[in-house]
TrEMBL record, chain A:
GO terms of molecular function: carbohydrate binding
Region of interest (Disordered), residue spans: 31-57
Protein name: Rhamnose transport system substrate-binding protein
Secretion signal span: 1-24
Organism: Conexibacter arvalis
UniProtKB/TrEMBL annotation, chain B:
Name by which UniProt lists this protein: Autoinducer 2 import system permease protein LsrC
Subcellular location: Cell membrane
InterPro entries in the record: ABC_transp_permease
Keywords: Cell inner membrane, Cell membrane, Membrane, Transmembrane, Transmembrane helix, Transport
Binding partners and assembly: The complex is composed of two ATP-binding proteins (LsrA), two transmembrane proteins (LsrC and LsrD) and a solute-binding protein (LsrB).
UniProt entry tagged with the keyword Cell membrane: yes
Organism: Conexibacter arvalis
Length: 365, 345
């Protein structure tokens, strides 16, 4: 009898959980459509009107809300600390608010409540270009300046996008580093990526493939693109798999910080260390040990703090009327110097920094 | 028929019944061992490097952490409860361990013990809420899964532990070997053996099975059900804490999201290994082999260069097969026992 009740309670609980999830999911879609309906005409009202005043001063006392893709992600936290730093330098205040998961719609409710607070600017790394677009348009309609950094939203839903590096630039660096770590620039290489549908990674890998077609890289052969899903265990297993499935492999190129650390960590204690090199995109702190022990002779990354710092200055310049987000406008971005807005409202941070045994101790992030 | 004959007949019958149930239990583990051997054999034929010594060491290492947590999870599932918070406990303790070793110069053994204690404390919360709060464990641990993860977010504050700041002797636990056998595997082996012996031979261990089979009867038989269930949760939390420390040793990189989704892998390992989700049936050995099997599936698909999208489908199919097999065996056993008691009457 009791066990019957127990199992019925269990089922009821399970049902409740499922119901809650369904309701939550419905709630989300409803929010999306609502904002969609009301946000449609917003973009038109913001983009026109005011003119840029390149000689203007930064206003002090500006407020901003910084939103990462996900809280707790060290890379994102670093980026946001740059934005906060920029606002502090200008006598303003930026506060960090963000979701605990990187789901497509997780930022939407937070953005809605951010608009209620009526800050001067919102700076975010979008989890999904379209899911956040309606609510960002709503923000712009209320005179809040919108800057995206690291990961863009639909281009009519923000004024400026801070691009950490161009897709071409990163693909190029990946190809060059792969050639550099393979002795004689000749041999098999494999890519260890994040998830199979990660937009950034796929774009970089596409450029890498294009470069490998050119005569300069004719001796490098890409044998496999593996996906570690930005999960340590999975990335470990994929690395093991690559090493045993491709005995002639000479390099693993991992354009993701989780993947490169996992590949380097696995290789550093493997008999194949020294024969197979790891390169790609990673942070100096996670890779320092492996650069020094020779597992990864070189890797690259832009400075995430600078991405956020530039985003902070761009947002402040927008809010101070120094720029409007149109192509060709310039503004002074603190220690990063004068910056120009390129086509489509993009500002490119610059080529990624390459880290080797010689310079890695100059960086701490 | 003399009374002696009847007595002999009774014993023979009891003997047969015991042999039958024993066989069934063996069959559960045997089935999964067969599946594992088949998988390894097929993969090895197609790609001989799969069974090279180095590759086997990796397979053992990959399964170790899951096997340890699955041992704890098994104790909880046996009592017809479930612990969804193990992934979050792992994340919390993995960072705690890394923090102690990188920033506070704690001796390695002390750090690991503290992780186990922290995991046990999480288990106390789960156990007390479940038993004394009379709330289903599914809901309690779903809640604490988020709570513990939230605490991990607050505690890590966006920081990351890197291999560079961890002592080499600690990292060696995750990657090194003792007499050629991976250290982490030896730890898992000992843990599983201890839990297995405890469940099989100790009164309080056997009582977990009794509670899961019929908790009302267990209570009437004088078993202190609440106390046992809390103890199972504490053991599960403690082992998740140990798993967290080993996670830090193995991967070297830890942030707030470490171990996300591990709870489902661990439960899958236990279920595939023949631990009935409805409680009262199964063994830690089965769960541990389940962990090895799940790890082997992933690795073999990678080695065979099969698209990783198939991996989840394969694991899902295996889960359903395990449950179907379980049900089939259960029905057979029921029928056999019913027949016997009918004959006896």
């Amino acid at each position: 009898m009791n066990s019957f009740h127990r199992s019925r309670a269990l089922w009821a609980a399970l049902l409740a959980v499922v119901l809650a999830m369904v309701v939550a999911a419905c709630g989300d879609t409803k929010d999306d459509t609502e904002t969609n309906a009301s946000g449609g005409g917003a973009a038109a009202t913001t983009s026109g009107g005011e003119a840029a005043n390149p000689d203007g001063e930064y206003r002090s006392g500006l407020t901003a809300i910084v939103m990462p893709k996900q809280l707790g992600n060290p890379y994102e936290e670093l980026e946001d600390s740059g934005t906060v730093e920029a606002f502090e330098e200008l006598g303003g205040k930026a506060t960090i608010e963000g979701p605990t998961d990187a789901g497509a719609s997780s930022q939407v409710p937070l953005l809605q409540s951010a608009i209620q607070k009526q800050p001067d600017a919102i700076i975010l790394a979008a989890n999904d270009p379209n899911a956040v677009a309606p609510v960002l348009k709503q923000a712009m309609a209320r005179d809040i300046r919108v800057v995206t950094q690291d990961s863009d939203a639909a281009s009519d839903a923000r004024q400026v996008f801070i691009n950490q590096a161009t897709t071409e630039g990163i693909g190029e660096v990946l190809a060059r580093m792969a050639k550099q770590v393979v002795p004689g620039g000749r041999g098999e290489i494999a890519v260890l990526s994040a998830t199979a549908n990660a937009t950034n990674q796929n774009a970089w890998i596409r450029v890498l493939r294009e470069r490998l077609q050119t005569p300069e890289y004719a001796d490098l052969r890409l044998v496999k693109v593996a996906y570690g899903d930005d999960d340590d265990q999975k990335s470990f297993q994929e690395t093991q798999g690559l090493l045993s499935a491709y005995p002639n492999l000479r390099a693993i190129v991992a354009p993701t910080t989780v993947g490169i650390a996992a590949a380097a960590r696995y290789l550093s204690s493997s008999p194949k260390k020294g024969r197979v090199a790891v390169t790609g995109l990673g942070t100096p702190n996670q890779m320092r040990k492996f650069v020094k022990d020779g597992t990864s002779p070189v890797f690259a990354l832009w400075n995430p703090k600078d991405v956020g710092y530039l985003g902070g200055y761009a947002a402040a310049a927008l809010a101070s009327g120094i720029i409007t987000g149109a192509e060709g406008e310039t503004f002074r971005a603190g220690r990063l110097g004068e910056r120009t807005i390129e086509a489509n409202g993009e500002i490119v941070l610059g080529p990624p920094t390459e880290f080797t045994r010689e310079n890695i101790d100059d960086f701490d992030f | 028929m003399s009374t002696a004959d009847v007595a002999i007949d009774r014993t023979a019958q009891g003997e047969r019944a015991r042999r039958l149930t024993e066989m069934v239990f063996r069959m559960r583990e045997l089935g999964i061992v067969m599946a594992l051997l088949l998988l390894i054999a097929v993969t090895a034929i197609l790609e001989p490097r799969f069974i090279e010594f180095d590759s086997l060491k990796d397979l053992a290492r990959n399964a170790s952490i899951i096997a340890i947590i699955a041992a704890g999870q098994t104790m909880v599932i046996l009592t017809r409860n479930i612990d969804l918070s193990v992934g979050s406990v792992l994340g919390l303790t993995a960072f705690f361990c890394g923090d102690l070793l990188s920033n506070h110069n704690t001796p390695i053994v002390v750090a690991i013990v503290l992780c186990v204690l922290m995991g046990a404390a999480c288990g106390v919360v789960n156990g007390v809420l479940t038993t004394f709060g009379r709330v289903p464990a599914l809901v309690v641990t779903l809640g604490t899964m988020y709570v513990f993860r939230g605490i991990a977010f607050v505690y890590t504050d966006g920081r990351q532990i890197n291999a560079e700041t961890l002592p080499d002797s600690f990292l060696n636990i995750g990657t090194g070997t003792v007499a050629g056998i991976p250290t982490i595997f030896l730890i898992a082996f000992v843990v599983v053996l201890i839990v297995g012996l405890y469940l099989a031979n100790y009164r309080s261990g056997r009582e977990l099975y009794a509670i899961g089979s019929n908790d009302a009867a267990a209570k009437l038989a004088g078993i202190r059900v609440d106390r046992r269930v809390v103890a199972a949760f504490v053991a599960c939390g403690a082992l998740a804490g140990l798993g967290g420390a080993l996670y830090a040793a193995r991967f070297g990189t830890v942030d707030a999201t470490a171990g996300t989704g591990y709870e489902l892998t661990v439960i899958s390992a236990a279920v595939v290994g023949g631990v009935a989700i409805t409680g009262g049936v199964g063994s830690v050995y089965g769960a541990a082999i389940g962990a090895v099997l799940l790890g082997c599936i992933t690795s073999s698909l990678i080695v065979l260069r099969i698209d990783s999208f198939w991996q989840q489908a394969a694991v899902g199919a295996l889960l359903i097969a395990a449950i179907a097999f379980d049900r089939l065996v259960g029905l057979r056993l029921d029928a056999a026992l019913r027949q016997r008691s009918a004959r006896r009457a």
